[in-house]
Design goal:
Pfam families: Acetyltransf_1. This protein is of the alpha+beta class. It contains 5 helices and 5 strands, in the order βααβββαβαα. Helix content is about 35%, strand content about 20%. A 5-stranded mixed β-sheet has the order 1-2-3-4-5, with helices on both faces.
Length: about 170
Amino acid sequence: MGAPGGAPTSPTIRPATVDDVPALHRLVRDLAAYERQSHAVTATPQDLRDALFPEDGDPAVCADVAEVDGEVVGLAVWFLTFSTWTGQHGIWLEDLFVEPEHRGTGLGRMLLEGLAARAVERGYTRVEWTVLDWNAPAIRFYRSLGAEPLEEWRTQRLHGDALARVARRAEQRA
């Protein structure tokens, strides 16, 4: 697919649809491989479909896609946050990924600009995300946009056995 004469069409940034789930799953796996975490991906296409397009209400997570010539080549997966300090919502960018052969074409910037526009339009006060400390190209890209590192903040995570152990403590009190 392309413009007449075989030229590529303009890239499109749009909300993901249920038909995009296979491409989203492929991109999630590609992102995990890039981040050296392929072993950590347990999500199935059905898991993504259920999270992004639940049958019983509004989704708790959303996705935008970057499309070139009818093919999904990038994604931004995000959800709402809330700041008690500002009393306003924000957007947490869980994943931003553009296929390597499409990097440098502005798609990542367009995905982030779309999130920023959505945040401003809705009165949200921030868009936040994490980046691996070794991912120098991504860090340079984010800095070029004006993103500020929050060096004093450290992400914490409960998962696996630790999550189960902490949950059992609550259950024991009930």
